[in-house]
Amino acid sequence: MDESGGVERVVALSDGVFAIALTLLALPLVDADIDENVVASDLFGLAPKLLVFALSFAVIGRYWRVHHQVFAHIVRSDGTLVVLSLVFLFWIALLPFPTAVLGEHGDTPAAVVLYASTIILTGLSSTALWWYAAVGRARLRADTRSLTHEDLDPDWVRRSLAGGLAVVVGFVPSLPLAFVDPSWAELSWLLVMPAGWLLDRISVRGRYFWP
């Protein structure tokens, strides 16, 4: 059953989870042990944690921005949307953990794989949430409407879905690469930018073949 009022509750819960996740990211920095006799060197030693914090803050911030844009177009909810939202929020809430592990053990394959896997699963769940709301519900249930505004631009839907998948495509190569060289695996995350551009071009040219 459609629930127009359920959208506000999902958004409110999501904002709370995002706020807590962003706050928890800083805990490894707050708990850092800095010796007053070697403050400069200890601060320099925190550089990896600071970089990982900045990366994860940017990632969660980006997902919050995308979530805000997506739900601006969703006008009703149903049980499946709520479940997909909870799955997505699970990965957002978990992200501070692999962030802390990567900051502490970023030179190990296990830490890199844990972090990249969490980002990939977050991206997949975010994309699945938006796809279901804008396209999937109407396709899976041919006799029902989508959960979005009826005048939603299909081109915008395609391009936003492509943007969500760019994070997934950009992080996947780092999984096998982590076992070769963790540092190169982390550098490979920069592939998100060209992957985003490529998928955006594909979404524009493929407008006749997918929603």
What does this structure look like?
- The chain is 73% helix and 0% strand.
- By secondary structure, it is mostly helical.
- The radius of gyration is 19 Å and the shape is globular.
- The model has no long low-confidence stretch (mean pLDDT 81).
Write the layout of secondary structure elements.
Elements: H1 6-24, H2 27-30, H3 39-45, H4 47-71, H5 79-94, H6 96-105, H7 109-140, H8 154-171, H9 174-177, H10 182-187, H11 192-205
Helix pairs in contact: 1-4, 1-5, 4-6, 4-7, 5-7, 6-7, 7-8, 8-11
The description of the largest β-sheet is: none
Number of domains: 1
Number of helices: 11
Reading the helices and strands in chain order gives HHHHHHHHHHH
Over all CA atoms, what is the radius of gyration? Answer: 19 Å
The proportion of residues forming helix, as a percent range, comes to: over 70%
What is the arithmetic mean of pLDDT?
Answer: 81
Please tell me what the overall shape is: globular
Class of secondary structure makeup: mainly alpha
Beta-strand share of residues: under 5%
Low-confidence stretches: none
Q: Cα distance, first to last residue? A: 24 Å
Number of strands: 0
